[in-house]
Amino acid sequence: MISIVDDDEGVRLATGQLVRALGYAVATFASAEDFLNSGRTKEMSCVIADVCMPGLTGIDLLKRVKADGHRCPVILMTSTLDDEMREPALAAGAHCILAKPYYVHDMIRCIDSAIAAYRRVVR
User: Which residues of the chain have pLDDT under 50?
Assistant: First the structure.
């Protein structure tokens, strides 16, 4: 299952449709807190999250997922992609970081890469 965490409903819906079209089950959440409190974090094979959200940011979520011992890759998206944003995201362990709006082929590449990495880890 792939989780999409974004406070923008339009982005959640569009990304969810893309991920479903690729054949994956999807769970969507309006905030990092909703995702973390869902009780479903262990079901995830990948998380796609916005960086800039009220409350916990996408980078906070990434750090929490890693600290809790989850091995699923995290793809981050942001409308303000620059070195100041990219470096902390990659340092925290982001699998990919994409600019919003993202190009569909870039998101597909990141998802394919993340799922392949997850499968190698859980074998």
Answer: none
